[in-house]
């Protein structure tokens, strides 16, 4: 049996090797010809899996080491008896930490405090709830809109769409869908954007087309400006340079891009493949990363610590630069930057030494998952 695996997936060749012959491929350039040589296909979101790729192939299982599945034509897979599994929820913690980093930088530059703001979450699934957990630890007020979640389960959190849009921070955490009772394509269009308060922060870590970029561009050119942190883009990686230049924080789809999330994702898909094949999964061991925050000076605050873990300003500068490149150099640099500089560790991999910080910040970091070390 032959297993095709995206070459960017951590340790995938070693993990899947006992199940069959593993061949690695570059995610954006997988061809129908190569797909016809295998029975199992493991992809990331950069590979479109549909009739054009799989028609006439012997593929019987498709695994996506990502949370979203808009890059997969699940209807085609089902009609052709091809099993599908995703890694939903495996990057939720990482995305939530990215959102928090954006919020903390926003507070610093807008001279606002955690105690003063309200956060609205559009989508309260894996990621939305992970963001909520971090906000709870910081005692930040928040509410959420999600028509697919039973409001009886979260009566104090779930609210209506317009109330969520009226918060100081609005963060998007929905899949991209084009049909059904609540399609999310251009969910945040001109009407929703007009309801955002002047000075509010809009964060998109969902999918690019959940947000109407042209409508948002018009708002950003107007008088009642808002702050924007955009990680997912329409037509990615061919991101619109005009839009990218006016965004406050532009990042190249790295919100959920951590070593820990990649490991959880590939293990989730691996276990699904083993279940499909009816074989026992092997125990997979990953190295436990340990990093020091280091001394940042006596005046260091939460923003300074988070900048060590996730340097948004550097990512912003480089993303805006690559957005202005010509195609295909833009696509190459987009993927290359993610691979070389976008991958990070989650908070739990970092140690903060007591003597390097005052007691207040140590307690705050410990609450967010950092390791406190005497």
Folded structure, characterized:
By secondary structure, the chain is an alpha/beta fold. Helix content is 37%, strand content 15%. It has helices spanning 12-16, 32-35, 51-54, 74-79, 92-110, 126-137, 161-165, 190-194, 213-221, 241-246, 259-277, 302-309, 312-323, 329-342, 359-367, and strands at residues 2-6, 21-25, 40-43, 61-64, 83-86, 118-122, 141-145, 169-172, 201-204, 227-230, 249-250, 291-292, 350-353, 371-373.
Using brief descriptors, characterize the structure shown:
374 residues; alpha/beta; Rossmann fold; Ribosomal Protein S8, Chain: A, domain 1; 3 domains; six-stranded parallel sheet
> Helical percent range?
25-40%
Q: In DSSP terms, counting alpha (H) and pi (I) runs of 4 or more, how many helices?
A: 15
Output the helix-strand order: EHEHEHEHEHEHEHEHEHEHEHEHHHEHE
Text of the CATH class of the largest domain? Alpha Beta
Structural class based on helices, strands and sheet pairing: alpha/beta
- Poorly predicted regions are none
Q: Quick gist of this model?
A:
With 374 residues, the protein is α/β, with parallel strands linked by helices. The protein has helices spanning 12-16, 32-35, 51-54, 74-79, 92-110, 126-137, 161-165, 190-194, 213-221, 241-246, 259-277, 302-309, 312-323, 329-342, 359-367, and strands at 2-6, 21-25, 40-43, 61-64, 83-86, 118-122, 141-145, 169-172, 201-204, 227-230, 249-250, 291-292, 350-353, 371-373.
